[in-house]
Amino acid sequence: MTQDMLLGNEEPSKSKETFLEKFCLLAKAATTTSALLDVIRQALEAPNVFVFGELLAEPSVAQLKDSEDAKHFETLNLFAYGTYKDYRSQPEKYIELTPAMQKKLQHLTIVSLAIKAKSIPYALLLSELEIDNVRHLEDIIIEAIYADIIHGKLFQNTRVLEVDYAQGRDIPPGYTSQIVETLQAWVNSCYSVSNCIDMQIKYANAEKSKRILNKERVEQDLINLKKVLKSQASDSDESMQIDTHGPGTSGGLGQSELRKKPSKLRNPRSAAAVGLKFSK
């Protein structure tokens, strides 16, 4: 049985950005540290906020990194760039997550996996989300689909999540240079492919020209051969006409002479009789 959870091809609406802007404004307006920490916790629990880069960039939030409230900064950093396994590996580094926060972090982990691969086995999802129940896993995936951060289908027979779309996550600091290098490598690869195609086109055109010239040469040779054969056939016909109707060249008798000769030798006995009678 296949469960189709495709929600459409449209990209997420800009309402998520609006929600994030609201928390950025609240962070700017916070006059005390406790108020700022409360804003951070609200952003982490908010169901429609899945990017946190702008909030991290707020000066008041950045100052928390080296303060006694650094756990709030690290937790916000975790939700921006990390995964559920990162949290489980060092839970003491972060604030205690509420059930809503944990579920959101699991949703973000699914997004990270969906960005890397379009076909995600259940086994990998169960491992990354540290879930031992397939039904629970499917519920979390369906929640992520309805949250509009991924589009895809659940194939229960093959136990695979096929992803059609995944929302992008925040880009870690210093990662931009890696993106530039990746894009440059892609551009260089495109140039190489383009040059290879140009060479193949030139080779194909040269081969085509050779074939055309060869074809023209063969056709001309055929025309010349036909002319020679026709000329030889004409000479042969003329020669045969001369041998059949012309005078003999070997001293033999012609046809008219051959027809006349037998008439002189007709009735040899009569001639003998006449000869005998004359001798008496």
Automatic annotation (TrEMBL):
Belongs to the CSN7/EIF3M family. CSN7 subfamily. Keywords: Cytoplasm, Nucleus, Signalosome. Residues 233-280 are annotated as: Disordered. Its main location: cytoplasm. Residues 1-168 form the PCI domain. The keyword Nucleus applies. GO terms for cellular component: COP9 signalosome; cytoplasm; nuclear periphery. GO terms for biological process: COP9 signalosome assembly; female germ-line stem cell population maintenance; germarium-derived cystoblast division; male germ-line cyst encapsulation; protein stabilization. This is PCI domain-containing protein. It is found in: Cytoplasm; Nucleus.
